Amino acid sequence: MIDVLVLLAALAPPSLSTQAREVSAPAETYQSAAIDANGDLAIVTTGGQRVVVRKEGEQKSFSRPVISADRTAVAAQALVGNCCTSYDIPVQVVVYARGKVHRFTGDGMAIFKWGFADGGARIAYGQEPVHFGCGVDYELRDIESERLIESIEVPEPCGQIPNPKPVKIPEWVAKIKGGSPTPPFLAPSSRPHSPCGSRSRARTCVASGWPPPLSIRENGAPVAAASG
Fold it and tell me: Bigger pLDDT: 56 or 130?
């Protein structure tokens, strides 16, 4: 009899509370994003909350923010000063998603080419020297876990190797390789020409509308209430 009861318990459907725990909460979505007067990244959720992502360390500013196609993530390049150029260098892609800040640095080289993948679940970016580079190291990462999914080195013409051997380009690289992901989420721009040739750079886009925030979060954490 005991064995029968144990078997019935094992076959019983999970309780309502267990089922509820297995259903993940809906992802936070974002209505607009911009750089505020302090040079920080300011985001407004579709629920009216204002989120502020602060600059860190030697960072001087953010590039214009980009909202992912599914509106579940906002990203911008972190720009730092450079002794040998007249412009600041992007060395990180900073992503805000699901209430968390993710800073993707790669191997420390400049990140001129980047974009969202899979709607907004993943981030793709290319790393290269500021000058005299003969290739770009691309990485595709999951935003939530920051796990590396795929990487590839793509050679590009340069003084030392004017005609590099071509490699097969994954789709996620092809979408950011030209530096101009499609509007309305990204608008192309450019940086000064490299000695290795002219390369279009994506310095981002975005965000329309700026409704009065109902509350403020700093780097994802609530810090104050604001009047509507």
Answer: 56
Alpha-carbon torsion 59, 61, 67, 72, what sign?
positive
Burial of 35 (0-12, 13-18, 19+ CB in 10 A): middle
pLDDT at position 31 over 90: yes
How far is residue 67's CA from residue 35's CA, in Å, rounded to a whole number?
13
Examine the pLDDT at 171 and tell me if it is beyond 90: yes
Q: Rounded to an integer, what distance in angstroms lies between the CA atom of residue 49 and that of residue 96?
A: 14
pLDDT tens, 137-154?
999 999 999 999 999 999
Q: Are strands 59-62 and 200-201 parallel, antiparallel or unpaired?
A: unpaired
- What is the arithmetic mean of pLDDT over 18-22? 39
Compute φ and ψ for 177, nearest 5 degrees.
Answer: -60, -35
Whether residue 191 contacts residue 171, with contact meaning beta carbons closer than 8 Å, is answered with: no
171-180: average pLDDT? 80
Cβ neighbour number for residue 83 with a 10 Å cutoff: 4
Q: How far, in Å, CA of 76 to CA of 90, rounded? A: 9
The tokens 């793709």 sit on which residue? 124
Strands ordered across the beta sheet of 110-117: 110-117, 122-128, 135-142, 148-155
Give the amino acid at 201.
Answer: R
Cα distance between the two ends of the chain: 64
| Spatial separation of the C-alpha atoms in residues 113 and 221, rounded to whole Å | 30
Residue from 57, 61, 58 nearest 34 by CA: 61
What dihedral angle (degrees, nearest 10) is formed by the CA atoms of 8, 13, 15, 18? 120
Tell whether the model's pLDDT for residue 50 goes beyond 60.
yes
